[in-house]
Amino acid sequence: MRKIVLSLVILLFSMSGAMAADPVKIGMITTLSTKAGYLGEDIRDGFKLAIDQGQGKLGNIPVELMVEDDGRKPEKGRQIAERFMKRDKAQILTGIVFSNVAMAVVPKIVRSGAFYVSPNAGPSKLAGKGCDKNYFNVAWQNDNLHEAVGQYVTEKKYNNVYLLAPNYPAGKDALAGFKRFYKGKVAGEVYTTLGQSDYAAELASLRAAKPDAVYFFLPGGMGINFIKQYAQAGLNETTPLFGPAFSFDERILKAVGDAAVGVVNGSQWSADLDTPENMAFVAAFRKAYGRTPTLYASQGYDAALLIGSALAAVKGDVSQSDAFRAALEKADFPTVRGAFKFGKNHHPVQDIYVREVIKDEQGNFTNRLLKKVFTDHADAYGPECSMK
Amino acid sequence: MLLFIEQLLNGLQLGVMLFLMSAGLTLVFGIMQVINLAHGSFYMIGAYVAATVAARSGSFLLGMAVALPVAAAVGMTVELTVLRRLYKRDHLDQVLATFGLIFFFNELTRIIWGRQPLFMDIPAWLGGAVELLPGVHYPVYRLAIILVGVLVALFLYLLFSRTRLGMQIRAGASNREMVAALGVNIRLLYTLVFGLGTMLAALAGIMAGPILAVEAGMGESILILTFVVIVIGGIGSVRGALIGALLVGMVDTMGRAFLPDVLRFVFSPATADTLGASLSSMSVYIFMAMVLTFKPAGLFPAHN
Predict the structure, then answer these.
(1) Distance CA B83, CA B256 (A)
(2) Model's pTM, two decimal places?
(3) What is the pLDDT of residue A335?
(4) Which one of A87, A188, B101, B102 is at 20 to 30 Å from A267 when CA atoms are compared?
(5) How far apart are CA A143 and CA A380, in angstroms?
(6) What pLDDT was estimated at residue A4?
(7) How far away is chain B from the Cα of A55, in angstroms, using its nearest Cα?
(8) Domain definitions of chain A by residue range
(9) How far, CA to CA in Å, does B261 sit from each of A120, A346, B6, B266, B277?
(10) Are B217 and A189 within 8 A, CB to CB?
(11) Is residue B106's pLDDT more than 50?
(12) Which residues of A touch B257 (CB under 8 A)?
């Protein structure tokens, strides 16, 4: 009898010891420095909020989040990924903001058998020919938000749209995504230098082309510059401006001021999306960090919850990779944007909305949902993916 | 034709902006023989301080009045603590040290102001557009930038040609040992010149604040063009900086505005657009290469 009790006690101790000593490690490679550092900051804060709400646990499994800054550089991202996998033995990675970093890092991670859950970057290659069973994107495929605006602009009967994007792959993809659903004429298609700050010359040509609407994709500071200068040139009074949510997150709006009010933009999420999960998330985020979450924060939060749902299914044992993957594929978690499914290429099949920039009663600039444009929208690259 | 006039004004305005930046840089380089990569940081500091003060007080002019001396003070502190140790070193050491300063200032602004880009609005009395010619509407604020640039050019001309300080600066540029031997306090002169250069960069930053995003790292994008300007104009020459800045502003703007259209005469529209986008971003550098082929020391070399 004593022996049995003793061995039970020892067993109990060793079990609890094992549980306490081995939280599941999650490696987050993200962009915290450079001008775009706030994107990574919001993804990280959204992810951490989910962990903090579970008191250090995701899906009731203790986790340890390691965060490192890739500085927007692909080679640095690769080094961090290697360190997370080799030194820290992390089997779950996440966090990359930029598609060029994702293209350099993700194939390496999934080839070694680890899992990667993307909270942002969704380059077409990883959704199509380069899809992988261990790669999941919880946000969107890069083209999706542009496609939604293309559809909306067509529905609103705009017929002569001027297009503008930076001269790099994501810029060309953006306009290709827009044109996939836009059926009217193209008044002009201009590619600017990446990082350009003054758009006076482009705006003068734009005015001369007399379009009935303008669609632009200029992420980060470039967007702030463009929107301000667009309004200063008086164009916002004559020609409506459209864009993806990337240029209209709450942080950019604060720097743009009145110039962005009224602009319609495409997004899979909005802070005023009326679901209990989302209301609770927005309130908790504001309380924890003192600012309104951006879509990046919502994506970080959803990534954490998705990982949590799969960790719960395998009781924290990521080495059961088939079971873990099957649980991820179900996307069975209380997402803040409303339920969605994964397509066979592991990208969301989800509703996409357009929002309008408004000034609320307190004088803050934010987005208001305008209309659901797509229901259960899947990306265009799924058929190229060989996964079943 | 009307579009062409508008683009000319745009080119002029960009040129003036570049002149404010490059006048300070070329002075520092020509007189002190220091390559100062951190020049863009003073542009950023000017914009940040002005945006903060303008947001608190609601006055753009007050923002400018505070930001200029603050930037000059920061600049002179940098001269006293860092650059003074580098005058005798070679250019590589100077590049490394001032490159480090860029990181230092970018991180400092993130610590003080956070990652959130600041908002700065055009003052109401400079808002809107005027009709210069029938059909040519131009924003008043951009005209104000051009005016500020002209005034600064005039001020520098008078400073250099009509004052004792200007004479000493010019003398210091051609032979500093001799000037020191004649009893001019060359150290004080250097600090003053550096402060002046910093203030011009800050002025450019303040003027850019309402049109651009005020954010950490904003100085680097204009810094490269500034270096192109002083290389084209001839290092150390303020007149060269003025001509170089206007040329670069024009070439850049005209390239962006008209190159794709010109290429359409030769290529298919799709090819012309792609080629035009790439070529126009290179146009300034191609122009620099051409100038250097015929004038290796720039258009107005300060030293023979």
Answers:
(1) 38
(2) 0.85
(3) 95
(4) A188
(5) 8
(6) 63
(7) 28
(8) 2-140+274-339, 144-267+352-377
(9) 36, 43, 16, 10, 11
(10) no
(11) yes
(12) 201-202, 204-205
Residues 6+ apart with CB under 8 A from A55: none
pLDDT digits (tens, 9 = 90+) for B235-293: 888 899 999 999 999 999 999 889 888 888 888 877 887 788 888 888 999 999 999 99
How far is Cα B270 from Cα B259, in angstroms, rounded to an integer?
A: 13
A43 vs A25: CA distance, rounded Å: 17
Averaged pLDDT for residues B7-34: 91
Q: What percent of chain B has pLDDT over 90?
A: 56
Quick one: pLDDT at residue B151? 96
The mean pLDDT of chain A is: 91
Residue A300 has pLDDT above 90, yes or no: yes
Confirm whether the ipTM is greater than 0.90.
no
Buried b (16+ CB within 10 A) or exposed e, B127-161: eebeeeeeebebbebbbbbbebbeebbeebeeebe
Q: What is the pLDDT of residue B112?
A: 94
Q: How confident is the model at residue A17 (pLDDT cuts 50, 70, 90)?
A: very low
Answer whether B211 sits within 8 Å of A225, measured CB to CB: yes
DSSP state letters, B244-284: HHHHHHHHHHHHHHHHHHHHTTTS-HHHHHHHHHHHHHHHH
Tokens of B205: 């930053």
CA distance A230 to chain B (A): 10
Nearest to A204 among B3, B115, B119 (CB): B3
Give me the pLDDT at residue A21, please. Answer: 47
- A-facing residues of B in 229-288 (CB < 8 A) are 253-254, 256-257, 260, 273-274, 277-278, 280-281
* Cα–Cα distance measured from residue B185 to residue B182, given in angstroms and rounded to the nearest whole number: 9
pLDDT at site B116: 81
Indicate if A144-267+352-377 has the same CATH topology as A2-140+274-339: yes
N-term to C-term CA, chain B: 42
Task: Identify the architecture of domain A144-267+352-377 in CATH.
Answer: 3-Layer(aba) Sandwich (3.40)
With H, G, I as helix, E, B as strand and everything else as coil, classify residue A323: helix
243-282 of A, contacting B, C-beta below 8 A: 251-252, 254-257
A62-75 CB burial, b ≥16 within 10 A, e <16: bbebbbbbbbbbee
The DSSP line for chain B is -HHHHHHHHHHHHHHHHHHHHHHHHHHHHHHH----TTHHHHHHHHHHHHHHHHHHHS-HHHHHHHHHHHHHHHHHHHHHHTGGGGTTS-HHHHHHHHHHHHHHHHHHHHHHH-SSPB-----GGG-SEEEEETTEEEEHHHHHHHHHHHHHHHHHHHHHHHSHHHHHHHHHHH-HHHHHHTT--HHHHHHHHHHHHHHHHHHHHHHHTTTS-B-TTHHHHHHHHHHHHHHHH-TT-HHHHHHHHHHHHHHHHHHHHHHHHHHTTTS-HHHHHHHHHHHHHHHHHHHHHHHHHH-TT-SS-S--
**Domain A2-140+274-339: assigned CATH number:** 3.40.50.2300
More confident position, B127 or A379: A379
Least confident segment among A122-126, B68-72, B271-275? B271-275
Helix (H, G, I), strand (E, B) or coil at A67: strand
